[in-house]
Amino acid sequence: MAGASTSSGAKAAFVLIGKRLASSLLTLLLVSVTIFVIAQLLPGDAAQEALGQSATVEQVAALRHEMGLDRPAPVRYISWLGGMVSGDPGQSLVANMPVSEVISSRLPNSLLLAALTALVAVPVALAIGIGSAMNRGGRIDRALNITTLSMVAVPEFLVATIAVLIFSVKLRWLPSIALVSDEMSWGDYLRGAAMPILCLSIVVIAQMARMTRAAVIDQMDRPYVEMAVLKGVAPVQVVLKHIMPNAIAPIVNAMALSLSYLLGGAVIVETIFNYPGLASLMVNAVTSRDMPLLQACAMIFCAAYLILMLIADVTAILANPRLRAQ
Amino acid sequence: MMARSIKGAKALPLSGKVGLALVLFWLVAALVGPMLAPYPVGAFVAYDVFDGSSSAHWLGSDYLGRDVLSRLLWGARYTVALAAAAAFLASATGTALALTAAVGGAKVDEPLSRFMDMLISIPSKIFSLVLVAAFGSSLPLLLLIAAITYVPGNYRIARALAVNLTQMDYVQVARARGEGRLHIAIAEILPNMIHPLLADFGLRFVFIVLLLSGLSFLGLGVQPPDADLGSLVRENISGLGEGALAILAPAIAIATLTVGVNLLIDAIGVSGTGRGKRK
Amino acid sequence: MTQAFHVEVKDLRVTARNARGEAFPIVSDIDFALKRGEVLALIGESGSGKTTIALTLLGHARPGATIAGGSIRVGDADITQLDAKALAQLRGNRIAYIAQSAASAFNPSRTIMDQVVEPALIHDLMLRDKAEAKAVELFRALALPFPDTIGSRYPHQLSGGQLQRLMAAMALITDPELVILDEPTTALDVTTQIEVLRAFKAVVLERGATAIYVSHDLAVVAQMADQIVVLQQGRIREAGAADQVLHRPAGDYTKTLMAAARPAIRPAPMRIDVPAAPLLEIRGVTAGYGRIGKDGLPRVPVLRDINLTIERGGTLGVIGESGSGKSTIARVIAGLLPPATGQVLLDGEPLPPGLKGRSREQFRRVQLVFQNADTALNPAHSVGQILERPLAFYAGLKGNAAHMRVLELMDLIRLPVSLIDRNIGGLSGGQKQRVNLARALAADPQLILCDEVTSALDTVVGAAILDLMADLRRELGIATMFISHDISTVRAICDDILVLYSGTMVEMGPRAAFQSAPFHPYTDLLIGSVPEMRAGWLEESHAGRKPPLIGASGEHPDLCRFLPRCAARVDGLCNVTPPPRHPLGKADGMSSHILCHHGDESLIPS
C-alpha cells in the first residue's frame, strides 16, 4: 500500500512539475510578444534612426527593406523569435556587430557577479532571518527588523556612495572602479568586484532576511509547533526539524525573488562601478535606442526570472507531501 | 478625525514616530520647500564647486557651483509629487481591475489574471527600461511608466484580498440578498481592503521613488533642466572621489524619505488593526 | 510514594498583558489535587481558562501569558521551579499532551510515524525500531485501521478521528505518568467522537495514567472523569467528585450549564389552516461542484435526489455530519449554487436556479443566516448600517423611517439600542448572532435558512439564541430551515426532521417519529452517539461498534452510501441492490420515510 502510493505520488508530482514548466514557457512566449509590441511602438523606426535626419526617403526605404522592416509585424515577430531561440537575436545597431557577440562578452560577468553575491548573501540572510525569528519580539529581533527595513528602502547609489567613501576614499582598500577583464587572476577579479558584491549583498541580504523571518514566523504560531514544544523538543530542533520542512518553500521563493533582482537590479551598481555586466549593457541600449540589443537583454532577464521562479515552485512541490504524495 | 490621528500617532512605537516625522517632513518640503529655497534653482552662486557646508550654503555647492540646498528642495518636490501620483495611479488602476476580476466571475478573472501574471514576470526595472526606450522620458511619460510598471504588483495583492473577501459569508449573504456586483465590490469588499491597500500604496510609493531616482541616476529619468533627487546624484557623480556633500545630500534625502515610509508602514502594521497584535 | 496526591496545584495564578503592558490575571486561585490514576476534568466555556490551566501542568504558558504565582507539583517535580531544559525533559516523557485539533497539531510535512516516535527518541528512552514496534502496538490498541502501515502516511491523508487517536499514541509512547487531554473530541462529529472516546478510555485511562481532561461538554466528561472542576472566567466555581457535581450541583453556575446542555423542548407553534401549496418545495434536486457530466451529475456531487417541503410557519431540521451536504441545501435554495437537476418552488412557483433572474421580491422572501456571525457580518459596517441595508434594498426605507424600523428590530432581538453605532468587532458572540438574525428579519421574510446558528457559541449563549428564535417564530410566523449537526437540538425545536448522509436523504419525518425506535440505522447511530450525562453510558451504548464483515460492494453510485459504516448491513443485499425508500410504520401517521432495505421489524433494537 505504502509503496504504491509513493510511486503514484511521484508521478503526480512529475505531472505537476511538467505543467509548471509548460506554463513558464507559455509565459515566456507571452513576455516576448509584449516586449516585441512595446518595442514596435517606438516613434520612427530603426532605419530612420540609423541613417539620421539627412537621409532621403529612398535611402530609408532601401534600408528598411534590407533590415526587413517593411514586412508585416507578425512576420517580423516570428523571425525575431526564431532568431532568439536559435541564438541569433539580430544585429546590434550601435555596436554594429551581432547582438549575440555583444551579449556573450557581458553575460558571464553578470552571472559571476550574481553567483558570488548569492554565495555571500544567502547564508547571511538565512542566519539573520532564522535568528531574528527565534528571537521574535526581543531586542536583537527589533534591531535587525529596523536595520533590514531601512536597508530595503535605501537606494543602491547611496549604499555604493558610502561604500566608496569608506573603502576607497578613506581606507583606500578597494578600487572605486571595477576593472574586470578576461586575463585577470581570481585574486585581482575579487579585488575589483569586491565593492559591487558588497553593495549588492547588503541590499539583497536585507530583502531575503525579511522574507525568511516572515516565513519562519508564519509557521511559529501553528499548533504543531506548540505540540513539538510540549513534546519536549529543544528550541533549535523545533526550528530545524519541525518548522524548516514547512518553511522551506516560502524561503526558497524569497531567495529566488531576491536573486532575480540580482540580475536586472544590478543596473545601478554596475553603472557606478563601471562593472561590465549585462544590466549596464541594457542601459546603454536604452540610451542609444538599440532595440535589437534591448529586446535580447530584456528576454534574458525575464527568462532568468522565470527559471528562478520555476526552481522555487518545483521546490515547493517537492517539499509539500500534499503535492508530492497524494 | 484629527484627534483620532493624533492619538494613533502617539500609540506608535518609536520607529513609527521617526517614520511619521520623516514622511511629514518630506511632504512639507515638497509643498513649501521651493518657496524657502535660499537661491534660484539654476543660479551659479558659489565660487567653488563641491564646496562643503558653510553658512551661506548649508549643504555646500554642486559641480557647477550652484546651491545644493536650493536644488534639493526643488528636487524633493519632483520626486515626491511624481512618485505619489504614480503610486496613486498604479494602486487605483490595480485595485479597480482586481475588484472587477473578483466580482466578474471566471470569464473576467482568468484572462485578466493571466495577463497580469505575465506582466509581473518582467522584472520591474527591466520593464520600465523597455518602456523608457520605447516612449521616452518626459515627465508625464515617466509618471505613466512608473504607474504601469507597478499596476501588476498592486493587482496581484488586491485581487488576492478581494477574492478572499468574496468567499466571506457576508458577501455570500449580500449575493443571496440580490445585491448587484457594484454594490458588493464597493460596499462589501472594498472597505475591508483599505488597510492592507494603504500599506501597499506606501510600498509602491517607496518602489517608485527608488525606480524614478534610479532612472534619473542613469540619465534615463527626469531630464534637465528639471531635476529630481536622483538627477542631483547623477550630475554630481564626479564628486564621488572626494566625498562631496553635493552627492551625499540628495542620496541621503531619498533614503530618509523611503526609509521613513517603510518605518511608518511597519509600525502601523504592528500597532494598528492589521496583522501582528491580534491573536 | 508517601505523598497522598500525585498531582497538586495550589494558588495557581496566570497573568497576561493588556495593550498598555499592564499585567492582569486570566486565571487565579486555582487549587486542586488528584491521586495517581485519577481523572480530573476541567470544564467551562470559552474564556474560562481551562486550557490555560491544563498547559501550566506542562510548565507552558501561551505567548503573552505568564505563570505568575502558585505551585504545581507532579510526582516529585515542582513544575514552577524548573528551568526550560528540565521542563523539556519532562514534557512528552513523564507528562504528555493531547491537543484539541489533531489535524493542525501534527506537522503536515512529516510522516505520522516520525512524529509518534519522536518523544521516545528525543528523551533517549528507546531505539527507533523498538519505538516503532511499540507505536504499531498502540495503533492496534487504539483500533486504528492498517496499524502496520498507517505510520508511513502524512497527516492530510487521514481523518480527524484517526489523527486524534494517533495523537494519543504519540502521547502514550513514553508511558507517561500524567496525560493532559485538551478538548480532544471537540472538533469531531458525534459519531466519530464516540469511537475516539472509547479508544481513549480503553487505552489512556486503563494504563493507569493520571489524566486531566479539558472539555466544555458535561456529558463527555461524565464518561471520563472521577473529579470535576467547574471554571468560569479563570476561577473555580465548583469542584468535587464527578457524580456529585453532575447530579447534585451546588453552584448556580453549574446548574445553568447543566440546564443549557439539555435542550429544552420548545413547543411548535399551532399550525394555522394548511393552505394548498407548501411555502417551499424541493423536487429532485441534485447539486454539487465542478462541470456537469454526461450522467447529469456534477463532477463532485454533494446532494442527490433531494425532495422536501416546508409548510408556512413550519420548522424543518436538517441534520447530518460535516460533509453531509446540509449547508449545500441552503445554498441551493438561496440561489448561491444552482442545482444540476431538479427544482426549488416557492409558493408553488419555480424559482430560477441561480441568482440570475430572481426578482427582488423572491430574494426578500428567503433569507440566509450563517453559522459564524464573525464572518457573516461585514466588519467594516456598524450595527445600524447592517440592519438598514435590507430595509433600503427591499422596502426603499430611508432616513427616519429606516431608523425607527432598526430600533424596532433591535428591540425584537433584545439588543440594547446603544449598540446601534457600534462596529461588529465591538460586540460579543451572542450579540453578533442576534444582529445576524435581525438582518434576516429586516427583510420581512417568509423563510429563514439557519445554518448552524448556535454551534459557534457557548452552550448558555446558544440556548438563549434558540429561545429567541422560538419566540420570533411564534410571534412572526416565519418558517425556518434549521441546519445542525446536533440531533438533540433539532429534536427539541423542529416540526419535521431530515437526516442527511453523504448527500442523500436517509430518513425524513415528523418530530414524533424521532422520539423512539425504529430509526434508519444512521439515525440510530446519530442518536445513540450523543453522550448521556451519566457514568457508564459509554460502556452501555451500542453505537459505533464495528459493523459485521461483508463482501465487496459493487461501487454502484445508487447503493446505500452508509453501507461501509452500517451496523445492520446485510451481505448480498445491501452491497448489491440500491435501497428502496419506504415508510417506517409508527402509530398515528407519525411515520418517517427511510432509505433502507430494512423494515420495522428488523430495525427494532433487540
What does this structure look like?
The complex is a heterotrimer of chains A (326), B (279) and C (606). With 326 residues, chain A is an all-alpha fold. Chain A is built from 14 helices and no strands. In chain A, 78% of the residues lie in helices and 0% in strands. Chain A is globular, with a radius of gyration of 24 Å. With 279 residues, chain B is mainly alpha-helical. The relative contact order of chain B is 0.16. In chain C, 32% of the residues lie in helices and 24% in strands. The longest helix of chain C is centred in the C-terminal third of the chain and has 18 residues. Chains in contact: A-B, A-C, B-C. At the B-C interface, helix 7 of B face helix 12, strand 16 and helix 14 of C.
Strand element count of chain A: 0
Number of helical segments with 4 or more residues of chain C: 21
What is the rounded distance between the termini of chain C? 49 Å
SSE series of chain A: HHHHHHHHHHHHHH
How many distinct helices of chain A? 14
Overall pLDDT of chain A: 84
Share of helix of chain A, binned: over 70%
State the oligomer: heterotrimer
Strand order of the largest sheet of chain C: 16-17-18-13-19-20-22-21
Q: If interface size is counted as residues with C-beta under 8 Å from the partner's C-beta, which chains form the largest one?
A: A-B, 52 and 43 residues
List the helices and strands and how they pair.
The complex is a heterotrimer of chains A (326), B (279) and C (606).
Chain A: H1 2-40, H2 46-51, H3 57-67, H4 73-85, H5 99-134, H6 139-151, H7 156-170, H8 186-220, H9 223-230, H10 235-264, H11 267-272, H12 278-287, H13 291-319, H14 321-324
Helix pairs in contact in A: 1-13, 5-6, 5-8, 5-10, 6-8, 7-8, 8-10, 9-10, 10-13, 12-13
Chain B: H1 2-11, H2 14-36, H3 68-104, H4 106-120, H5 124-135, H6 139-166, H7 169-177, H8 181-189, H9 194-217, H10 229-235, H11 245-271
Helix pairs in contact in B: 2-3, 2-11, 3-4, 3-6, 3-8, 3-9, 3-10, 3-11, 4-6, 5-6, 6-9, 7-8, 9-10, 9-11, 10-11
Chain C: E1 7-17, E2 23-34, E3 39-43, H1 50-56, E4 65-74, E5 77-78, H2 84-90, E6 95-98, H3 102-105, H4 112-122, H5 128-141, H6 160-172, E7 178-182, H7 190-203, E8 210-215, H8 218-224, E9 227-232, E10 235-241, H9 242-247, H10 252-261, E11 280-292, E12 298-310, E13 315-319, H11 326-334, E14 341-346, E15 349-350, H12 360-365, E16 366-369, H13 373-376, H14 383-395, H15 399-412, H16 429-442, E17 447-451, H17 459-476, E18 479-484, H18 487-493, E19 496-501, E20 504-510, H19 521-529, H20 537-540, E21 581-584, E22 592-595, H21 600-603
Parallel strand pairs in C: 3-8, 3-9, 6-7, 7-8, 13-18, 13-19, 16-17, 17-18
Antiparallel strand pairs in C: 1-2, 1-4, 4-5, 9-10, 11-12, 11-14, 14-15, 19-20, 20-22, 21-22
Helix pairs in contact in C: 4-5, 4-6, 6-7, 7-19, 10-17, 14-15, 14-16, 15-16, 16-17
